[in-house]
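Reading group handout, session on sequence-to-structure problems. Before we discuss, look at one worked example. The prompt was deliberately terse, the way you'd type it at a terminal:

> structure Pentapeptide repeat-containing protein

The input record follows.
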Amino acid sequence: MKILFATDEVLEVPYDTLVGVNLNNLGLHRAILEDMDLHDASFIGCDLRGAYLANSNLIRCDLSRTSLMTAFFMHANMKGARLHNCRAMFCNFAGADLDKADVLDADFSDANLCGTIMTCININYAKFTNATYDDLTVWPSNFDPVAAGCVKE
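And the output record:
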């Protein structure tokens, strides 16, 4: 299977599908993974800065210690994903579903969380400095986004 990049590069991986595969520590900067089924895949320690993952199935993916800065996750299904210590600054999560995603020590500073389902595990341990949200963003009932540093649009 080939992974394409916005830089016109191509990475050949020895899989027919990316469901459940181990892609740990790969350089996937600006990878084009939109509309893909990636559920149960492991991206631990990957460089996914500026990657395109809109509309992708990322259910139960492990994105721990991953660089996600400026990545595009619009309308991605990230239910149950693991985002421990990930750097998700300036990412676009508009309309994404992070229900039951574990965001322990994740950094969502300056991220777009408008219309995002943010009923996450360990949300009180994540960083949200200047992250934007709107009336469609869904938070846990015991979470105060303004106190966490979010800004309402």
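Points for discussion. First: The chain has one domain: 1-141. Second: The first strand starts at residue 2 and ends at 5.
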